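Annotated sample (chain length 153).
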Amino acid sequence: MSTTRKAAAPSQAPMETPDPLDNRETQLLAIARTLFARHGYDRTSLRDIAEAAGITKAALYYYFPNKDAMFERVVLESLQSLYDHVSAAVAQAKGPTQRIRAFMEASALVMQDHGRDRWVAGSNAFWQGATSGQRLAALKIRDGFEGLLRQCI
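Output written by the structure step:
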């Protein structure tokens, strides 16, 4: 009798558990998004974010090298989420009237479901704190979003 084990088939492989660091990073981004939306980039400090998260400022540096990097992630992920949701809704609609309706309803649902903080944090990027690279990346997503509406017509 052989004692060697056969490799498990891919369907029998154990499921990967989510990396707890990814979950914590997501939580930190949500906290930062809320604070950036309420107070703006300039009046939100890493200390504020760390205190709201219940961690030390030093622990925050484990996830993000600086406030700019955190702000960039908040802005770009917020804009990308809006674009992705609206794009999917528009793609399923038939005819110009239905596409415009899908665009507007999906936009409103993103604001409702994900909170106004995503919108405020993203729009603040155009007026405060954004570097030219951040601004260009955000403008590219915004232009794609506006292009979706033009395609509806």
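Annotation: The helical segments are 20-39, 46-53, 57-63, 67-92, 95-114, 116-124, 132-152.
Annotation: Confidence is low (pLDDT under 50) at residues 1-21.
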